[in-house]
Amino acid sequence: MGIPLLDLKAQYLELKDELDAAVTDVMANAAFIGGPKVKGLEAAIAEYCGTKHAVACGNGTDALFLILAGMGIGKGDEVITTPFTFFATAEAIAHVGATPVFVDIEPDTYNMDVSKIEAAITERTKAIMPVHIFGQCVDMEPLLEIANRHGLKVIEDACQAIGATYKGTMAGALADAAAFSFFPSKNLGCAGDGGIITTDDDELAAKCRKLASHGTTKKYFHDTLGVNSRLDSLQAAILLVKLPHLDAWNAQRRAAAAIYDELLAGVNGIDLPAARDYGVPVYHLYIVKSTRADEIMDALKNAGIGTALYYPLALHEQEVFEYLGYAAEDLPVAASCDGTTLALPAFPGITRAQIEEVVQVLKGVLA
To answer: What residue numbers bound the domain in which 189 lies?
Structure first.
């Protein structure tokens, strides 16, 4: 492919010697589960985000599930979230037995519309789960004010937003707890699945750690039903090599986004993503919206340029959530994104010439 959506091979080659040495060290020491690499990563992520605790786990989905379970949220409870996100957000809510309650999104950031949250609160609401979609933080100050007034927990789904800030505070340190994913395509990605929880709550951190290890703190003695969700040392070692480069990579993503903003300004038939001035985004993806998305994607693919829909169908329209009783028109902004929001290559290291090539193809469709 001429221009991939994400160039993981180039990232590996950039750090090949360090990454290979880190993996070899884990293999040589045969410390595959837990151990110093995982503890080191937990300390490094807590320091990076500015939280007291970081609890490593198997993946970002588990991180969300463990937080919810650790908070005691379950059957009969409701959690307010967004319908425009990866399925795992609502999946985790459903898996603890709670009910996801969707509110519509902002049309330009695709983040949860905070002004719609209060109307969705009922006597069964226990938490709000904002998603910092595509690497831009939700407007957290008014959201937290609503939560505090109603006595609700707030859980950041920060799986796409490591390194993003809101009014100077890192994503992951903005609420009661946060979940991150280290899936390979994330801004900080490992070589498989991985996740981590951040929080300042001592009790919640201990509960999440216990739940992630079969509900035990003493081997073979169990007083709680947990799950098996552990980050292996190979992934921790890889992440420890990559973490020092994260801020530079995120800066390169922002630079790519700025070039797209410049070159696509005023082009008819396409909406560009908005960046709010309350924070610094990290552009996990650079998303544009067009009713001609299919034509644009076909042209890009024919030119050897990577692209993908994010997302083809909002969560309130998914078959598995039919029991919730939503119609597409209940959340019209989210529904308007079905099959119209697509990603353009904006990976660290992409050149201006490559971006110009992408823009040329896109303009050729919309001309």
So the answer is: 8-244
